[in-house]
Amino acid sequence: MGVPFDYAPERPDHIEQILNGLDRYNPETTTVFQDYVMQQCENQTYDCYSNLALMKLYQFNPHLARDETITNILVKALTVFPNPDFSLGLSLLPPHVLAPLSSSSQNPAAGDAPLSEAVQKLNVLNNLLEGADYAAFWSTLDSDDLYADLVADVSGFEELMRVRIAVTVSQAVREINRSILESWLNLQSKDFEHFVGTVCGWSVEGDKVKVPLNKENEAKGTVVRENVKFDQFARVIKRAYEQPA
């Protein structure tokens, strides 16, 4: 049985009470939710249900919205891909934020980017993750100082992303070339071997990395059987003969 969508083991009691009562629609709880988002960023915890509740409050009270909190929510959502949390967050943003920026607009300095540009930048990362283009994800992340600014508040962002990439790899393969996995994890030499061996529990054998067998990457044969009773077959044959030539 799957984990409920609204479940978060580290959720504080006062946040739980707000989410389960009418106060979740009270604009005065906005600051409480905002503080909780920052707590998630600092403690490497995550609460999608609470974050979406805050985004919903922003939707109905746009004057209370904080760009920094919105981008932090979206960055945290990236760390749990391939879950659809990032797309859920985008769905609660106003259309003008989601619209691509004009090509004639000037590029602001890192830290001064409008929300629309920040969202577009993060959406590029999300699309690369959805397409499993992990090497391009890392190169894109390193290509612009704005990306570094956007993920700065999220403690351990790169490590969290490596863990999620490793999880998706473990669900698909049992063996992979070392060079490919190095590009996907953006790690080399001893750092790569430490992460693969200690964090993932995989083994490096020459130029190959072995992934232990699990229920996701185990090859299973599928047998398809059709249960057609004789009387059903007979009726089909009879209708075929009764049709006029």
From TrEMBL:
Domain PCI: 46-227
Subcellular location, record wording: Cytoplasm
Record's keyword annotation contains Protein biosynthesis: yes
Gene Ontology cellular component terms for the protein in this record: eukaryotic 43S preinitiation complex; eukaryotic 48S preinitiation complex; eukaryotic translation initiation factor 3 complex
SUPFAM superfamilies tied to this protein: ARM repeat, Winged helix' DNA-binding domain
One GO-annotated biological process of the protein: regulation of translational initiation
Molecular function via GO: ribosome binding; RNA binding; translation initiation factor activity
Matching InterPro entries: ARM-type_fold (IPR016024), CSN8_PSD8_EIF3K (IPR033464), eIF3k (IPR009374), PCI_dom (IPR000717), Transl_init_fac_sub12_N_euk (IPR016020), WH-like_DNA-bd_sf (IPR036388), WH_DNA-bd_sf (IPR036390)
Alphabetically ordered keywords of this record: Cytoplasm, Initiation factor, Protein biosynthesis
Source domain of life: Eukaryota
PROSITE patterns, alphabetized: PCI
Function: Component of the eukaryotic translation initiation factor 3 (eIF-3) complex, which is involved in protein synthesis of a specialized repertoire of mRNAs and, together with other initiation factors, stimulates binding of mRNA and methionyl-tRNAi to the 40S ribosome. The eIF-3 complex specifically targets and initiates translation of a subset of mRNAs involved in cell proliferation.
Family: Belongs to the eIF-3 subunit K family.
Oligomeric and partner information: Component of the eukaryotic translation initiation factor 3 (eIF-3) complex.
HAMAP family on file: eIF3k (MF_03010)
Descriptive protein name: Eukaryotic translation initiation factor 3 subunit K
